[in-house]
Model the fold of this input.
Amino acid sequence: MLKGSCLCGDITFETEAEPQGASMCHCGQCRKQSGGIWSSAYVADNDLTITGDVLWFEASQTAKRGSCQRCGSYLFWKAHDEDTISFALGAVDGPTGLELTKHIFVRDKGDYYALADGVPQKD
Done:
């Protein structure tokens, strides 16, 4: 069981499923919303139980982002045409047991850091 929460604890989430696609996103939207790089993994929609009142923001025509209304923690990313949901690895309580599989949107990354971990990168 993997469990997590926002900073204030108003929103919690959990899954018994094995999360997939552990990645770090460097896109402009994730950088602006998280203040840096956003790390996430995903599970099927039905495999993630969310408790609390998530504020969903329609970030684009293809996806929405979910955060806590009280503390502002950015917790979820959901594509409109997919049956999966991504959750913030940084919000997981305790070890995740996951290993990073890729960096995405690296062409948009900030100029103030380098990627030197050897993990595959996608533009």
Notes: The mean pLDDT is 96. The chain has one domain: 2-110. The first strand starts at residue 2 and ends at 5.
